[in-house]
Amino acid sequence: MPQLPPVEYAVAVERYLTASGLGAGSRRIYRIALDTWAWALADRPVPVGPERRRAKPPVLPLALLDHPDSAGRLRAAVTDRAAGTDPRTLNRELSTLRAAVTWWRAQGWIDTDPAAALRPQPLPEAGPPALGPDDLRALFALRAPLREQTLWHLLHESGAPIEAVLALDADHLDLPGRRTRPPAAPLRWQSGTARLLPLLLAGRTTGPLFLTDRRAPAATPAADRCPHTGRARLSYRRAAELFTALTLPLAPTTPWTLRRLRPTTPGNATGPGHRTQGR
How many C-beta neighbours within 10 Å does residue 223 have? Predict the structure, then answer.
């Protein structure tokens, strides 16, 4: 029997997080982000510092998202938080809100998207620049495993944060549309990734998209374990280690990092889509 639409925003948040398949730690981070926007929707200042985690967010109806004033309240909250919040944190919170709103609309619980006009904050220039066209051609010509080539293409073509890509599950993908589907963060990719993803999935329809080489330890949460192979979700640390090791011949003096795969303008990558030459 289908669930009735939730009345309260907080209940809608919990249903979204339950459907997301995220691990407990990730759900906690997402909940904090979505609670942040509850303060903004209630037209109240967001608590800062340690008080933010301890404060109980206001109780408000989910239908408030359809109110004409909601978009303006969220826009004002972004402006206020941008003055004292790291832009990466704020952008992550915006992405979380967009993903939740997309899912709620897909359920028919709300009609409008009050976050549609919100734009990511510009990031400060820091660290080495993104890889250039020649570097990308050399990278995608490496005899690297299929998993790594798929991850590298997806990171470059989507411009998405590494954490968001590694959190993807097989059933989050709309392969014909070259995009994710709710409850995943909204991502899009191009031909290089589109060619590799079906090979990587090899018929898998559920479980983590990017898997480790070995079976998962017994204590691994079900959301981070593949039901088909028993292997675990690939970690950020391991993905970073492999990228640096495999690309060392291309950058022997200054090793590359995964963050250099993100294009200057996220989501508009036009890097080469060479076929992977090894697994």
Answer: 17
Opening angle at CA 79, ends 259 and 8, nearest 5: 95
Beta-bridged to residue 233, according to DSSP, are 211
Conformation bin of residue 276: beta by default, left when phi > 0, alpha when psi is -120 to 50? beta
**Alpha carbon distance 227, 207 (integer Å):** 6
Write the DSSP assignment of 185-246 as a string of letters: ---B--HHHHHHHHHHHTT--SSBSSEEEEEPPTTS-GGGB-TTT-EEEPPHHHHHHHHHHH
Q: Which of 276, 279, 259, 59 is nearest to 161 (CA)?
A: 259
pLDDT in tens, 66-82: 999 999 999 998 988 88
Q: How far apart are CA 169 and CA 21, in angstroms?
A: 8
Amino acid at 239: A
Residue 151 confidence (pLDDT) above 90: yes
Region 82-89: what's the mean pLDDT? 81
Alpha helices in the chain (DSSP H): 9-20, 24-41, 50-54, 70-82, 87-107, 133-140, 146-158, 162-166, 191-201, 236-246
Residues 6+ apart with CB under 8 A from 272: 133, 136, 137, 140, 192
Average pLDDT over residues 98-111: 94
Q: Which residues pair with 266 in a beta bridge?
A: none
Tokens found for residue 182: 């709710």
pLDDT digits (tens, 9 = 90+) for 172-191: 999 999 999 888 888 999 99
Q: What is the CA radius of gyration of the chain?
A: 20
